[in-house]
Amino acid sequence: MMHSEKLWRLADKVANEYISREDTVAVAVTGSLAKQTTWEGSDVDLWVFSKREDGFQEGMDNGIYWEADIKHTSVLEIPFDLQRWLTPPKLKENDGNLYDALWQCKIVYDPTGKLAQYKARIDETMADDDWLEARRKNYLLYGRGCLDALKFANPLHAIVIARDIATMYGIASYWMGQKQLLSSLRRVPENLSAAPHIQTLYKSIYNLKGRQGAEEYWHHLDRLPAAVKQKIQTDLDYEIRPVYQLGYYDGSVCKLLQLLAKQFDPEEVRPWLCIDSDPESHKRRILQEVQELITLCSSS
Q1: Distance between CA 133 and CA 297 in Å, rounded?
Q2: Sign of dihedral through CA atoms 213, 218, 224, 230?
Q3: Distance of CA 74 to CAs 29, 45, 50, 53, 97, Å?
Q4: Burial letters for 264-293: b for 16+ Cβ neighbours within 10 Å, e otherwise?
Q5: What is the pLDDT of residues 105-162, one digit of tens each?
Q6: What is the pTM of this model?
Q7: Residue 96: predicted pLDDT
Q8: Is the pLDDT reported for residue 95 higher than 90?
Q9: Between the CA of residue 272 and those of 149, 179, 180, 224, 256, what are the distances in Å?
């Protein structure tokens, strides 16, 4: 059986479990499965609209990871906000953008038709080249502003934030230039192969060094403090280790660096953040590289 067929069988199984609940209002399959861009590491992503409060659920089924973002049905009552979608998310606030997630989604349950109306507006907007170009420029402008604010920041904090800027605003704008949205965050470096100059800069920003570097990094993870490892264990087992095992070495390390920077203070996990021995020098280098990356993405 093809991997995509296995994914759809699991998607239908999990979706039906939610549909059977009286509080479920709508269900959509999102991500690579919905967009027909699956790869060997694809998992199942669902968005569930419910009368219950927001939540998140995940699991493994026959070796395939699935997750469900659960939103209160009231979000479907909020008028479609085009201006809000044009505005870049603030740093540390880029989790689960509703509009991005529902673009090209596959609706599997929507008796009221409200989710279909939302999806139609989203798909229609994304098809507008002028609107997408305006959004791309907003991301680039905001990214430059955030980068400028790091000139006098603590070196460790500046480095991890600059990496976020490179991904959230630089690489995201690159994909908008390709009429796509940033996705598959576990293999961002590998997906930049068609833009080798951007890829090289991005790998340098994260200090990514291919298979050998990834093997050394994963070996070093064994020395993570127990409390840190416990907090990220599910992400390690369900999402990151599988892509490492599939050969996405830089992608696995990149995702781990992002996870650690998001969950912990940089000082707490510094040995696992791939920081140079001289943080101040590293800061100067990375700020220059992120500036160059944003410039390249602006002309892509």
Answers
A1: 12
A2: positive
A3: 19, 21, 9, 10, 16
A4: bebeebeebbbbeeebeebbebbbebbbbb
A5: 999 999 999 999 999 999 999 999 999 999 999 999 999 999 999 999 999 999 999 9
A6: 0.94
A7: 56
A8: no
A9: 25, 35, 32, 8, 9
